TrEMBL record:
The chain crosses the membrane at residues 30-48, 60-79, 100-117, 123-141, 148-168, 174-192, 204-224, 230-250, 262-282, 288-305. This is EamA domain-containing protein. It comes from the Bacteria. It holds the Pfam family EamA. One of its GO terms (cellular component) is membrane. Residues 1-20 are annotated as: Disordered. Residues 32-164, 174-299 form the EamA domain. Keywords: Membrane, Transmembrane, Transmembrane helix. PANTHER family: ACYL-MALONYL CONDENSING ENZYME-RELATED, BLR2811 PROTEIN.
Length: 317
């Protein structure tokens, strides 16, 4: 009897030690998911500001420049070498530069597309970005997908084809800008995840807008047109504010959860985009957009469910 008691105590202690670690990891993932949901709410607001400016005749490239100029200025107030010593030092500087350039390209493509497409149309196509992230997470992050997950990713891409309807005269050609944005954003998300293992959130935020600002500054004399009203200035500031807050939350989310766990929750942006599109522009998504978006969302939710099952089935260390 004494032997049984003696052998059972260490086992219980080991389980007790393992449970808090599992609970902590679970809480970190929940926080990461919440941060992702907050980030995409800000991104939907950014898109609404960008589309309003485009409809008012403001050049999308001017909007892109102002987004980075104001963002860098705001970030520099809180994150700079004086307030945060060592923030400029990056252990992966080429990755930081590549991430910043990818974000610039994604922003420019998005603003150009919003000039012609509904908010719901652009975000529905961009829903393929999490699927692309899940596909690329294997070779780039070592987070490999099973055959079932790959099938779900393929179904999701079919959903994008339903939305775009290539060759049947359905969607505006600007939809191709959204498709390009999908690829660009996927690499941006992957690099964000990789950088979380090397650099602090402050360092990554410090570099976020620098490459875009440096790239746009020499072009400014050829593209600049002064906003016509204070409302336009306020919208430009809104673009920068929502973008800054959104990407701050995004970086913190990726520091707490794997990319393929966070990626499906970008779909919550659909609710914000449809609501803002209807309230601000009177846009109602077409049946093709709704059907394709549901296919892509369903694929993403399936990926999330598979990830949950896989982690629960993993034996405790």
């Amino acid at each position: 009897m004494s032997t049984q008691v003696a052998t059972s105590v260490p086992d219980d202690s080991a389980a007790t030690r393992a449970d808090p670690e599992a609970e902590l990891a679970g809480r970190r993932r929940i926080v990461g998911i919440a941060l992702m949901c907050g980030a995409v709410a800000f991104f939907a607001s950014l898109d609404a500001c960008g589309k309003t400016l485009a409809r008012a005749g403001v050049d999308p490239l001017v909007t892109t420049f102002m987004r980075y100029a104001a963002s860098v200025a705001m970030i520099s107030l809180f994150i700079n070498p004086v307030r945060t010593p060592g923030v400029v030092k990056s252990r992966r500087l080429p990755l930081q530069i590549a991430r910043s350039l990818l974000l610039f390209a994604s922003t420019a493509l998005n603003f150009l597309a919003l000039r012609y497409l509904q908010l719901a149309e652009t975000i529905s196509i961009q829903f393929a970005a999490p699927l692309t992230v899940a596909l690329l997470a294997g070779p780039l992050l070592g987070e490999w997908s099973s055959r079932a997950r790959l099938t779900a990713i393929g179904v999701g891409f079919l959903g994008v084809l339903v939305i775009v309807r290539p060759g049947v005269g359905g969607m505006h050609p600007a939809a191709l800008l959204c498709v390009a944005n999908v690829v660009v954003y996927a690499f941006y998300a992957i690099i964000t995840r990789k950088l979380a293992a090397y650099d602090s959130t402050a360092t990554t935020m410090f570099y976020t807008g620098l490459a875009g600002l440096a790239l746009m500054a020499p072009l400014l004399p050829w593209i600049w047109t002064s906003p016509a009203s204070l409302t336009h200035w306020a919208l430009l500031f809104g673009v920068a504010l929502f973008g800054t807050l959104g990407h701050w939350l995004l970086v913190m989310a990726h520091a707490r959860a794997p990319a393929n766990v966070l990626a499906p929750f970008i779909y919550t942006q659909l609710l914000w985009s449809v609501t803002l599109g209807f309230l601000l522009f009177g846009d109602v998504p077409s049946r093709w957009t709704v059907a394709g978006a549901m296919i892509v969302v369903g694929s993403g939710l399936y990926l999330l469910a598979q990830e949950t099952i896989r982690r629960e089935a993993r034996p405790a260390a």
